[in-house]
Design goal:
The structure is a homodimer of 330-residue chains.
Chain A (H helix, E strand, L loop, with lengths): L1 E5 L8 H13 L4 E6 L1 H7 L6 E5 L10 H7 L4 H10 L5 E4 L3 H12 L9 E8 L2 E6 L9 H17 L8 E4 L10 H11 L5 E5 L1 H6 L4 E3 L2 H27 L2 H9 L1 H11 L7 E4 L4 E4 L6 H16 L2 H15 L1
Parallel strand pairs in A: 1-2, 1-4, 2-3, 4-11, 6-9, 7-8, 7-9
Antiparallel strand pairs in A: 5-6, 5-10, 10-11
Helix pairs in contact in A: 1-12, 3-5, 4-5, 6-7, 6-13, 9-10
Amino acid sequence: MRIAVDAMGGDQAPAAIIEGVSLAQKESPNVELLLVGKKQVILDYISNDLKVSIIDAKEEISMSEPPAVSVRKKKESSINVGINLLKNGKAEAFISAGNTGAVVCAATLFLGLIPGVERPGILILFPTLKGFSLLIDAGANIDPKPMHLLQYGIMAKVYAEFILKKKNPSIGLLNIGEEETKGPEFLKEVHRLFLDTDLNYIGNLEAKQIFSGEVDIIVCDGFVGNIALKVSESAAMAVADFLKRHIMNSFSARLGAMLLRPAFYSLRKEIDYSEYGGAPLLGVNGVIIICHGSSSSKAIKNAIKVAINSYQQNINREIKLALEQEVKLR
Amino acid sequence: MRIAVDAMGGDQAPAAIIEGVSLAQKESPNVELLLVGKKQVILDYISNDLKVSIIDAKEEISMSEPPAVSVRKKKESSINVGINLLKNGKAEAFISAGNTGAVVCAATLFLGLIPGVERPGILILFPTLKGFSLLIDAGANIDPKPMHLLQYGIMAKVYAEFILKKKNPSIGLLNIGEEETKGPEFLKEVHRLFLDTDLNYIGNLEAKQIFSGEVDIIVCDGFVGNIALKVSESAAMAVADFLKRHIMNSFSARLGAMLLRPAFYSLRKEIDYSEYGGAPLLGVNGVIIICHGSSSSKAIKNAIKVAINSYQQNINREIKLALEQEVKLR
């Protein structure tokens, strides 16, 4: 198996990316790793014991560039070049911590979609009080149709079953109230679509239910999913900052904080993005893993693990079958 | 000034509501308080030293009923009766911790809107690391047009200036990225509308910026605002639960928690909804304050304070003037 990694994407690129690739190589020595990016820059960072191929890509797409335009114009960007490796059968997976919109756009454009999928969706692991839930879509599709959300539910179910080994996972719809009458017309339509399947659909979910971990899969549109993800990360960080500020002002609190350090450490570990690696972009014809812009080397290493797993389980074939099955049932 | 309070609305009604009214009476003895609800039920809870009028309302709208239908059908509900007191000049403000959608619907229907306002919006105080920001809309209008969000910005600005005494407050738009190219078409249109005013508009805001408190007013649609509010409440609570669980498992952590108790206490106080009272429903022709369903007596007391303040500052007149001014500038 060959995995292409975008060496130029992310706030800490290329150093953290290359370090992550090096960590992955130690864990999975049989996987062939390809670094995609500006060759001269990569060579400056690479150590002698790292056995990787470098695929030169003369351009870069920055985090703030408009995705569709930059993918069309920058044909030599690391994102375009990397995803075309999959298209041309020269790699089995691509990983990037760069411009998410550009990755989504290039993957859709060059690889196409799995039959039955109308839009790809980003699946993330969302930390809860009971471990993790899956959330889809975290930002690939900010203006979806109701049917896209149904397809997200089905793709996430397949992922939960084949990758996380969870049987008949429960699916809920993120809304502003549990009752059927709550929320915009759009979500009422999605609700009706889910009721009409034999999925383990439990209905609308309120925000507080997503943290209790009572549902395996949270479905929402990409805009709301991205807001929910970032608000929860930021709220947890704000709570920590707030406590830290108070702790600094008092001796007894400082002592208390010292004694609580293991608890804070576990908390950080639990909500730390880098622990779970990247988020699969589900629905495209190929294994694409999207990483947080601030990805550390550990995050990159874990994203590579997610890619290996997705490829070995042939997740895209399972998604195709599940969607065919769903159409037959109608 | 006469303030009508919905005695039947909220998870702890009528006990917490009546207790809150009693606390408010001690703080503001010159304000006349009217309890609206089932007379027999209210009489069971009322103490002798409470000087209130009881306005009988034979029906109740529960939290889960569809707003528009219930307002139309239950003409004798505490929400309908209470808001009609304002319409008929028998009270100057109405406070409810009941079905939010029903309050929004009844207020719009019976009181009408301030000239220049197309939809009312719920304004909340959002706790940040620097105190509070204002967020509008927290859930009154889940399917808004771009122009509604501009009107929300203007109304919140007036509130910040006249009630919170903040000069030239900054306004930001909650989005999934800071860049102009980010987000759905809808928000790009809102962005253009704001740029075309002389408001202190600073552009798109990411979730992490709302917690840093760098902006005075956060504008968003009611669905996203409600999700952001509930996700942040739930995330903060999840962090606290997580720490509590770890603390219970270790003696040193328990000791640490004891020493940190003042810090946790301040945190709770800072994010405790009841500390700031209710959220004004801006844009309707009258002073309407919406409280959290789980409002305690303290929350009700503080909501009454917000109502007094809004009425005394004649906030609706100022909103009308600001919107006229805005139209002139175009």
